[in-house]
Amino acid sequence: MLSKLKSELQSLANPKQAEILQRFFKTGKGQYGEGDVFLGIIAPKMREIAKKYKDLNIKEIQEILNLKYNEARWIALLILIHKYNKSSLEDKGKIFYFYLNNTSKINNWNLVDISAPHIVGDFLLNNYNKKQLIYNLAQSDNLWEKRIAIISTFAFIRKEKFDDALAISEILLGDEHDLIHKAVGWMLREVGKRNLQAEEEFLKKHYKDMPRTMLRYAIERFEETKRKRFLRGLI
């Protein structure tokens, strides 16, 4: 079955689309996605493949995660999410730690964003005594582990639990990477969709020290006058 999946991926390869994706996901030397390789497969096709091979076991999922192609790892993560959702509480824990042991393979923002809330976030939401693990990730030297930390809190935010999202946002305020600025701003905006007061209180305390991109993402849904006041430092 695994060999069929690999063959199917190769048959769907589109070199022109792959070239576009290589640029979009910054895979050049010195860029955040340096060394990542794309086949050029569109998302609907990847979802079809993930559905077709959803019953792969953990060993087989590991083998797909080990492949150099971004699309293969994306599919592996979709299969892993399916397996997680179907698992017992005990097996959810095993999948959670399997995920954490493979963060080196979850090494572009599309891979983090498709998976972190559904595995890391969900598991910690239901095993809150282990939440220190995302704080450890937030203080990692690894870009993707930091993004996993903040994006995982989306699971909390969806359940109207904002404290950890705000606390991790505070930890990451001084981060230098644009992808962290965008991720934190996005999660702050999601907090604001559900509790505008909570977001505004955080912003009033920190907005003058926030990277501009982070602030812009966070206030994207504000009405224009308020948005301009934040941007001009007039709050």
Key features of this structure:
15 helices, 235 residues, 2 domains, Leucine-rich Repeat Variant
Care to describe what's here?
- The chain is mostly helical and 235 residues long.
- The protein has two domains: 1-86, Leucine-rich Repeat Variant (Alpha Horseshoe), CATH 1.25.10.90; 102-235, Alpha Horseshoe (Leucine-rich Repeat Variant).
- The protein has helices at residues 2-11, 15-24, 43-52, 58-65, 70-86, 89-100, 109-126, 132-138, 143-152, 154-158, 163-171, 178-194, 196-206, 212-218, 224-231.
- The chain is globular.
List the helices and strands and how they pair.
Layout: H1 2-11, H2 15-24, H3 43-52, H4 58-65, H5 70-86, H6 89-100, H7 109-126, H8 132-138, H9 143-152, H10 154-158, H11 163-171, H12 178-194, H13 196-206, H14 212-218, H15 224-231
Order of helices and strands: HHHHHHHHHHHHHHH
Query: What is the radius of gyration?
Result: 19 Å
The CATH topology label of the largest domain is Leucine-rich Repeat Variant
Count of helical stretches? 15
Mean pLDDT: 96
Biggest sheet overview: none
Tally of structural domains: 2
Structural class: mainly alpha
What oligomerization state is this entry in?
single chain
Shape: globular
Task: Estimate percent helicity.
Answer: 55-70%
> What is the number of beta strands?
0
Which segments are poorly predicted (pLDDT under 50) over 5 or more consecutive residues? none
* Gap between N and C termini: 59 Å
Question: How much of the polypeptide forms β-strand, as a percent range?
Answer: under 5%
CATH architecture of the largest domain: Alpha Horseshoe
Which CATH class of the largest domain? Answer: Mainly Alpha
